[in-house]
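FAQ: What does the model actually see?

It sees only this:
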Amino acid sequence: MAVLGVILAVIGGIGFWWWRAQQVRGAAENVIDIASKARGMVSRARFRHRAGSSVLAGVDNPGMAAATLLYSLMSLKRPLVLADEDKIDGMLETTCRMTKKDREDAMAFAAWASGQVADTSEIVRRFTPLWTSSLEQPQRQELVEMALNAAELGGAPTDAQASVVKRLSEALLARG
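And it is asked to produce this:
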């Protein structure tokens, strides 16, 4: 009987230590999982930052750049509705003299890009060299007027919109 008690005690001890080892392993897996998630979040944040800065890098058409600016500028006040997009489309048609296909492409890109770029001032900064190299002074003035008109749709421009229009005006009109 004593031998049976010893065997049960040994089996119980082995079982207890096995159970404790499983608990330690589970805790270690949780720590590793949390560390992996944190590393993934950092990687995603870095990617989003890089992607956000490179979203605008592929634009080489001043009309598409203007559409992106106007769309982003208008979305500073409120989410855009179809009527707002039609107004941007009309500006691109009359002022930029873009074809229907080019306007459709520009609007699709503008809708996507304005959601990817957090600061509309960044759009002005990134596209200023494009506009200054490809637009004459009267065309630059027209772009500033388009931006002002877009900011004034639906009421007076917000402070953020006024700041962007001012920055655009300073960047394009101060350079002769």
